[in-house]
Amino acid sequence: MVSHADILASNALLNDATAPRVAVFVGGTSGIGKLTLHALVATGASARIYMVGRKSSAERTQPFIDELRALNPRADILWTEGEYSLLSETRRICNEILLKEPRIDLLFLTAGYAPMFSDRAETEEGIEITQSLAYYSRILFVKHLLPALKAKADAPGRVISVLGGGLEIASAINLDDIDLKKPGNFGGPKAQTQYLCLNTVALDKLAEENPDVVFLHSWPGWVNTGNVHRGVKEGSVWAWFVKWLLAPLIGVVSIRDEVAKQRYLFEATSAYFGGSGVAWKGKPGVNVKGEEGKNGLFLVNFRASCTPNLKVIPVLREKAREKIWEHTMEVLGPYL
């Protein structure tokens, strides 16, 4: 386990040589993404950061961007507008970034919300919106930006997807209805478990095919991001439950923002997870193949420690991965 003291010590060593020079944050307008973005800028390192957000978020996000620029004038914050729940928009955003950046050091993916209390709703492209945000859009970002993430062999790029790494349950994944379209299959913990398993399976495939890139699937634990209110129908019983019971409970038991942001800055920059970054002198992290000191896919818990889930991942790899990947490429094909 990585101690918080070790995390702070690692983060204190960040400078122009060890911090990401070019980073893309998808979902950096709120929650974990926003906290991590602030922590990265606060290091004082020179960086160019693409902050991808929806048009509806632009006005409320501008004061935060102004704060970041004042905090670190050496950080170039580039607002990049796009509706990333749409795969066509995700492709456009990626192409826009690639026209400017031959190399990307960090791709940080946090967009989305838990479909605990919402009805199924599809985008204009026919994909359930929370699944598009939590899975398809994220994998499409990775696929498009891989050439830039692989641009420098001695300093591999890093991809971090924040959802539920380490919580996979092989028996819970629905391979007969991957998009949960059949009646009774969508909603609540079933959808959330499905999407986190899809993330892990796809990232495992990508990590195997791209050993020169570091992949993390991270579970943040209880962090008071406010996303629990998203997707709840106003005036419903669930809205009452969230407002008066669930949200206050999260406020009491949640991890402090300052602790969470330091943990994610560590995940984004430490060589504990392989690749480049701040050198790690202790025992290195273990990837999903049980390997220490190598690149690959790392499942990371809310303490920023590796939880490889070695009993479940081989089962998913053998029995589910190819079917999920084939289906995913069928969905993403028109946008690649």
UniProtKB/TrEMBL annotation:
Molecular-function annotations in GO: oxidoreductase activity
The keyword Oxidoreductase is assigned to this record: yes
Keywords, sorted A to Z: Oxidoreductase
Keyword Oxidoreductase carried by entry: yes
InterPro entries listed in its UniProt record: NAD(P)-bd_dom_sf, SDR_fam, Sec_Metab_Biosynth_Oxidored
Name of the protein: NAD(P)-binding protein
Lineage: Eukaryota, Fungi, Dikarya, Ascomycota, Pezizomycotina
